[in-house]
Amino acid sequence: MKLYRFSPIASEAELYDAIKYLHVACHKLCLRTFGRYLPVRGNIGIFAHYEDELACLTSLRERLTDQDAHYKHKYFRLHEPIVVPPAHGVPGATYTLLYIRRVDPYRSQVGDIDFILPPEEHQALKGTLNLDTFVNGARLFGRPEENIIELWDSDTDAAAYVAAKPLPLTT
Known about the structure:
Blueprint: H1 12-34, E1 40-47, H2 51-64, E2 65-71, E3 75-84, E4 93-101, E5 111-116, H3 119-126, E6 138-140, E7 149-151, E8 159-163
Parallel strand pairs: 1-4, 5-8
Antiparallel strand pairs: 1-5, 2-3, 3-4, 6-7, 7-8
């Protein structure tokens, strides 16, 4: 029995399969929560579930990204953006930043994607949410300094977040 949908990811092709899956799953989560698709923030995260998988994914990330262009040494700019075309009603998107999450026994999801909500809408939504309870599939993320809203559905093995502005890069 396979515990995780894609793990262990052991090749670039498997990484891209996971990214395509996340793209669709997170967009559907966004649609369920907001009744519409939001634009992506440009970053995509893949969650490692095994230590050897983390080593493989980190090696892939080092090969695919510019190690000097990053946000908090977490999100690294891809040498070549990953473009997922629109399909089956789900909009396409371009991902320019890749994040590999370390093994976390409390995160069984495949990974995550961030979306952008205009600042005034983001602020209004934040006013209706709290840290501990999901309201219509959304809650304030546990690190208020990040100013992010977390989306969640128990039937989805992907996580999505909503921010009011793009990630700044160090170059």
